[in-house]
Specification:
Layout lengths: L1 H65 L6 E7 L4 H15 L12 H8 L3 E4 L2 E12 L2 E9 L1
Organism: Clostridium punense
InterPro entries: YtrI_C
Keywords: Coiled coil, Membrane, Transmembrane, Transmembrane helix
Length: about 150
């Protein structure tokens, strides 16, 4: 009788493992397929958005090609300079160097050339020498240049 109970116990144990494994596999497959469906839906939505944005971008590029983007202004930001009069004078001289680029098309400007116009330049104001070093340059309708000043 003990042998029959052990066989029955083993049979129920094996059946429980098999049924548990099958239920786990089915529930895992259901969960994974649900997630895959969500991702597929999200991918389709994003593809639709990309198509819309590409169409919009093409229209905007056509408009931009018709209207040329030109430089309208020069802005100079000086770093490390505390004397306000020297700062104003340096800004004025740097703007004078870059004013010849106003009215030029942005896509035809060379950033390296703009950089070299100001970088490593030494300016004298009231018997003081200021060495200029360009740290950043941004070119759009406004040329914005950040310059570090060293005495």
């Amino acid at each position: 009788m003990d042998k029959v109970k052990k066989d029955r116990y083993f049979f129920f144990l094996a059946t429980g493992f098999i049924l548990g494994g099958l239920i786990g596999i089915v529930s895992f497959s259901t969960f994974i397929s649900y997630r895959i469906d969500q991702y597929h839906h999200k991918i389709k939505t994003l593809e639709s958005e990309i198509e819309d944005k590409n169409a919009r971008l093409e229209k905007l590029e056509e408009v931009i090609n018709k209207k040329k983007l030109v430089v309208k202004e020069v802005e100079v930001t000086l770093e490390n300079e505390e004397d306000e009069i020297a700062k104003i004078t340096l800004q004025k001289h740097i703007k004078e160097k870059l004013d010849k680029f106003i009215g030029k098309e942005v896509n035809k400007l060379d950033g390296d050339m703009l950089w070299e116009v100001v970088d490593k330049r030494i300016m004298k104001i009231k018997d003081k020498e200021y060495k200029l070093k360009v740290s950043k340059l941004m070119v759009s309708e406004t040329i914005h240049i950040w310059v570090q000043v060293q005495q």
